[in-house]
Amino acid sequence: MSPFIESNDAAERAHAHAVEIDPLRQDLLGEALTHAHLPPPRKRPFVIALLALGSALGLGGWHHWQTYRTSLETQEDVISFVPTVRTVSAVEDDEPMRLTLPGQTEAFDHADIFARATGYIAERRVDIGSRVKKGDLLVRIAAPDLDQQKSQAEAQLGQLQAQLAVAHADVEQAKANVTLANATDARTSTLAGQGWASKQTADQTRAQMLTATAALTAADAKVKVAEANITAQQATVDRLRTLTTFENVTAPFDGIVVARMVDVGDLVHADLGSGASLFSIESTDVLRVSVQVPQSAAVHIRDGVRATIQVAQMPERSFEGTVSRSSVALRSSVRTLDTEVDVANPDGALRPGLYVNVTFAVPRAHPGLQIPSEALIFDAAGTQVAVVQPDDTVKLHPITISRDLGTTLELRSGLKGGDTVVLNPPADLRDGSRIVPKGSVSSGEPVAKLSVQASAE
């Protein structure tokens, strides 16, 4: 018989005997009997758990060792890493600088036409957009008052001319009287000296001679007065005749009528320069392009500098011109130079008032040095570039930027032509760092092209 069966029989006997025991002892006995039913603990689960814990600890230790070994290898690779970089040679550029500025087209000649004769518009021959030649009739003004004033002035001039003729006749008569008086005086003086005439008679003839001479002088003065009156009246007639010519308003030069402020029947007044004009005419065969040049480029702008004009609405065309005049002095408020470029416009493609872009070909005083903008290093030390040394190490050179052209930079100092610089330099690049140049480009290629190639890579 097994020990387990024997223990069960003993438990039953003890239970039967426990009926006769008091309730407290029955409770204690029941608890003891309950523990008597549990089997003894086994060792296998503890062994399995121990083995699992040991395996986990061993696996963790192996993984930690592998991580540590990998970190050592990575650290060694970082210490010994030599980056492969793209490089480009700095290029000296002695071509004219390209400076693009906004501008506005203006008519070469502009005239506001005002009335010089007071009257009504009797006829209008042009309108907005009409092309006119110099001397073409624009409007005809009906001015009857002015016509009557001219006729009256001409009639008065005729009267004065007649008075001049009378004055000349009086002079001739006075000359004749003087001649007669001189002869009579000479004869009387001779007779009085011989005693044939009295002295009183001689004195009277002398007085008559003097009176005739004075009358001749007065007649000459009247002639001069008449001539002066005629001259004054002739000026009045000429002025009125000139004003009557202004009844026909003509074009002062070849151009286009860009504004019309009158129509047939309108009353216009002469010499009102502050009022509204009759027409506005502009010449467009040659246009002025007005540009405000900043101080940074003003010193290089002079007459004869070539310029290219482009209009956004006409991308397929460009117009050539030259700087023809400038204000010489800069505006103190904005530090800009008023500059005008003359552009030939024989086909009328350009119009006054257009917003345009003007690109100047500014001559260089000294060759410029250009590098791609992606070679720039900007940190606490300022603006620098990494220059490749003959032993494939780099040296950081501080630079001064003259102009930022977007994809390229024009330098004022820091490099010389032919220096090889690193494109997109790593952030940890320092003086003396070794590199492996890749994709180096010869210094003869344009910098703009190099920048494009670098971006493509």
TrEMBL record:
Localization of this protein: Cell envelope
Domain Multidrug resistance protein MdtA-like barrel-sandwich hybrid: 110-270
Listed InterPro entries: Beta-barrel_RND_2, MacA_alpha-hairpin_sf, MdtA-like_BSH, MdtA-like_C, RND_pump_MFP
Keyword Coiled coil tagged: yes
Region of interest: Disordered: 433-457
Pfam families assigned to the protein according to its UniProt record, in alphabetical order: Beta-barrel_RND_2, BSH_RND, RND-MFP_C
UniProt entry tagged with the keyword Translocase: no
Major subcellular site: other
Domain spans labelled CusB-like beta-barrel: 289-361
Superkingdom classification of source: Bacteria
Residue ranges of domain Multidrug resistance protein MdtA-like C-terminal permuted SH3 in the record: 371-423
SUPFAM superfamilies listed in its UniProt record: HlyD-like secretion proteins (SSF111369)
Coiled-coil residue spans: 143-177
Record keywords, A-Z: Coiled coil, Transport
UniProt-listed NCBIfam families: RND_mfp
Sequence similarity: Belongs to the membrane fusion protein (MFP) (TC 8.A.1) family.
Alphabetized PANTHER family for the sequence: MULTIDRUG RESISTANCE PROTEIN MDTA (PTHR30469), RAGD PROTEIN (PTHR30469:SF37)
Protein name per Swiss-Prot or TrEMBL: Multidrug resistance protein MdtE
High-level lineage: Bacteria, Pseudomonadati, Pseudomonadota, Alphaproteobacteria, Hyphomicrobiales
